[in-house]
Amino acid sequence: MPNALIAHPIVFSASSYVLRVTIGTTTENLTFSVTPGRYYWLVGDNQADASTNGGVGDLLRNLQTCIASHSDVGTITVSLTSGFRVQVVTSSIATINILWGNAATTLDATIFGWPQTDTAGTGATLTAPNLGRGLWRAGKPISEPDTRRRRVHLGGISESLSGLHRVSNFGTSVRQRELAFRLLQRSVALDEYATTTEPYGTWEQAWESMRLGRPARIYADETSRTSSSYSLVRTRSVSDPLARDPSTPLRWGVDLQVADL
Asked: Model-level pTM?
């Protein structure tokens, strides 16, 4: 069974940010554009920025568009590596560097897995050292129990004094699901145990987004991240589903209750 992934959105408060980039000997201030309050996802599925379901835009696409506006860029490609690190590649023979630490840069580097310091690349490829924001890699497949996506029938039954029963049917709800992740390492469960290269890759980070009522994407296979390979859900409970795994106190488990959007 493949390992699963839960993605949660990045939300910006401003419509544009500055990113200072050097390619070769040319340094320019570039504009990174987004829509305030809209959802963006660090998944690399190349979905265009749109308001569908609150936002479906792929942040790697936004970053690619931003860097591609450089006057000496060649062809720019921004993608996720197999280790889920953001990678920037230019076809230009010149060295590329992102000046995250420069006073002119206003974009948060940690979103993309960089520290807020200038990169020190020596070629046409830059790879972030850390996992970016908005991704929870359980390191496990979805576990049992898993109810799958089931419709809930809404209605009721009344009983008269004579024992007759009447059934009222009000229709069906959106599909709901209960699923679990078992035997989780503490480094993907709690912020206090997060590794230095995946500081935002814990369940606590994902839950901080989900508990606000924001949507999440569930990918049954973390290596398959297309525009149609995920379920878009919202939590049905505000109780944190993280607890010690019932089979061993050394590991953690998540029992998640969600509904389709």
From this structure: 0.91
